[in-house]
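Objective 1.3, modelling of assemblies. Example input:
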Amino acid sequence: MQYKQWQLTSRPVGEPSRDNFELATVSLPEVGENQLAVKIHYISLDPAMRGWMNEGKSYIEPVQIGDVMRAGTVAEVIESRAEGFAVGDMVYGNFGVQEYAVVDTKGIHKVDPSLAPLPRYLGVLGMPGMTAYFGLLKTGLPKEGETVVVSGAAGAVGGVVGQIAKIKGCHVVGIAGGKEKCDYLTHELGFDAAVDYKDDDFRGKLKAACPKGVDVYFDNVGGDILDEVLTRINLHARIVICGAISQYNNTKAVKGPSNYLSLLVNRARMEGIVVFDNVKHYGEAAQEMATWLGQGKLHAKEHVVEGLETFPETLMMLFKGENFGKLVLKVNHQE
Amino acid sequence: MQYKQWQLTSRPVGEPSRDNFELATVSLPEVGENQLAVKIHYISLDPAMRGWMNEGKSYIEPVQIGDVMRAGTVAEVIESRAEGFAVGDMVYGNFGVQEYAVVDTKGIHKVDPSLAPLPRYLGVLGMPGMTAYFGLLKTGLPKEGETVVVSGAAGAVGGVVGQIAKIKGCHVVGIAGGKEKCDYLTHELGFDAAVDYKDDDFRGKLKAACPKGVDVYFDNVGGDILDEVLTRINLHARIVICGAISQYNNTKAVKGPSNYLSLLVNRARMEGIVVFDNVKHYGEAAQEMATWLGQGKLHAKEHVVEGLETFPETLMMLFKGENFGKLVLKVNHQE
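Predicted structure (C-alpha cells):
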C-alpha cells in the first residue's frame, strides 16, 4: 500500500517552512512479528518539534534528514502480529507525521474512544497534560495560597498548568496573546486573572494581577516575558523552564534572561523539565487528570486542523500564537 | 574625636570611581548605653558592595547617599558600655569604610587574634568563607566523584568553594584569569585543573578539564563564562548563582545566559544564594572550616592593601581581576 508521509529534507534556519519538508509517497512494509500496522487519525503538533529539527545534542535525538517527521499520534490498529493488540484498537504512539505506519509496540498504549474524544489523548490526557502535571507539581511545588503564573496559558500545556494550580488552591494568573484568549482563561478555565502580553502596559497589568508577587512561574515562552516575570518573583520562588517558544526560531543567539540575578536576590530557583522523565508515573497522573475531568474541575480544548497536506503551515500556527488550545492535525485518508 | 569615613555621594553608573565617594571628616559620637566605640583595623572589600550602591529593591537596603559606605570589618573595642565586651576585644561587625565607629552590639561577634591573623576573619572565616560553605554544600549538593567547576576561583569565595569540593571528593576545576592564578589553584589549593578564561581556547580547555561534564557549577562571574559552562553541564546539574562580577558595572542590561535552555535539556537547576540566610548556622560552619584549616586541608590567602584613602581604587581591583585571594583594606590610623 502506498501512503503519504512528511519527511524532513533540510534543517530550518529560523522559522521552518514547507521548503524544509517533502510530502513523500512511500510503501507500507510487511508487518513483522510483534509488530502492528496502524492508520494514523490524529497527529500532535507541539513546539518541541522545532527543537527536534535541529542538529546536535538535546534531550532526544534529532530527526534525521530524510526521515519522517517525529510526532505523537493517535492511530487505529489495522493489522496486528503483536499480543494484546487487535484490529480496531485505538493506540497512542510516536508514529510521526504520516498516514500509516508499521511499528513495534514499545512505548505504545491503548486509548479508549468511549471515555474521551480521540484528540484529547494528545492534549490533556497526553504529553502536554503530563508535562503540566509533573512540571507544576514536582518542580513548581505550588502551595495553597501562593501565586502561580503561567505563560502560553491558552496553549496545550499552559491551560492545564493553570487549572491544576487552581485545584491546589493557588492564585492563578495566565499570560496569553489577545483578549479572546485572556477571556477564555478567566471565563472558561477559572484563572483568577489573565494578562495579554501584547498589551502596551503588560508590565503594569502583570504587576496588578500579582499583588503578592510570584511564587511559581511556569514558563513556556522565554524571552521578554520571562524577564518581566523575573522582576516580580518572591523569595524562594520556583521557575519551571518547560519551553521557550519565543526563541525557537531565532536565527541569532537565544535571548537569555537578563534579569536572572533576581534568582540571587530572591534565593529563587530556575529548573528545566522534560516530561519523559516521569514515564513510570504517567498512569497515576492520567488517572487523577481523568478524575478531575469527570468532576468538571479540569477543562480541555483542542484546536483541530484537517488535512495532512497542511502540516508545515499548521505547525507554524504554534509560533504565531494562532492556536487556541491543543493543536492537532486530523488526517483525512485518501482511500 | 575627629576621624575619616568614606561616604557614598552619588550612585555610580557603570564602574564606581573616586567621584562617587567623599572622604569626609566626622566626629565620633558619645557611646550610649549598650554601645561600643571601635577602632577599625581591617575592612572587607567585596564584589557585593557594587550592588549596595544601586538604588532599588535587592536582598539588602541600598546604602543611602551621604551615608558611610557599608562594609564588613574587624575592629578593636576602645570603649565599652555593653555587657560582654571589654576594651581591647577584637570584634567582627559591619562597621563601614571608616576609621572608627560607635555601634550597637547586634550582629557583632568577637574574633580571636591568637587563632588566626585578623584579615582571615574577613575571608575564609568570614562572609566569603560562609558563602562558599553554604552555597556549595546546601545548594550545590556535590557528591563524591562529581565534577565541580567554580569561577572567580582565585577570589575569596571561589578558592574556598574549590577546596571544600576537594574535601568532599570531587573533581574540581577552577576558572580564573591568568597563568599565575591558575598555577596557584592547582599548585597551592589542590584543584585538579584550572582554566584561564583569557585563553583563546577557553572553550576547548574547559572541555578538556571536564571530561565527564559538569555536575555543579558555582558561578561568581556570570556573562560569557556562565554561558560557556552551560554548554557542558550534565543531567541534573546544579548551578549556584553566587554573583556576577562581570555584569555589576554594566551600563547596559545584564547579559542573561543565552544557553539557559541547557537547563531544560539537562533537567538542571540554577539557584541563587545569599549568605545571610544561614546566619543561625555560621557557628557550626566556622568550626568545621577552622578544623580543616588546622588539618591543612584548607588554605587561605588574603590580599591586604594599606590605607583607607585608597578605598575607591582598591575596590576597583576586584572588578579588574587584580586581587589574588580575599581583598582587605588595612586602616592606618592617623594618630
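Chain A touches chain B through 33 residues (CB under 8 Å).
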